[in-house]
Amino acid sequence: MMCSVRSADWTSTPLLITSSFEEWSHTDDMAVWNEGGYVLIVDRKKDIIVSGGENVSSLEVEKILLSHPAVMEAAVVPMPDMKWGEVPKALVVLRPA
Question: Residue 77's domain spans which residues?
């Protein structure tokens, strides 16, 4: 199953996907609905973001972000850009203080 999630309110639990969202972020993540009715991200359609002719590995950027002690979770997704084609966008969850 392919799905798109809205870039705003991405921290809400459980992740709610409805047709009422006004702004969408197409992450190219592949997901399934689990038995509890939650969306489980299982893989990415692609791991390379092409930005201005340069290849950016989303996995490498995530690895660097996760090496910071304040970061609990991180995901890097491509966002469309008029100048560069795509640019990386990082979604980060910080560890509780």
Answer: 46-94
Same domain, 33 and 56: no
17, 29: one domain: yes
Residues 35-70 pLDDT 10s: 888 888 777 777 889 999 999 999 899 999 999 999
pTM score, whole prediction = 0.60
**DSSP readout, 26-43?**
---EEEEE-TTS-EEEEE
36 and 5 in one domain? yes
Residues 6+ apart with CB under 8 A from 45: 2, 28, 29, 30
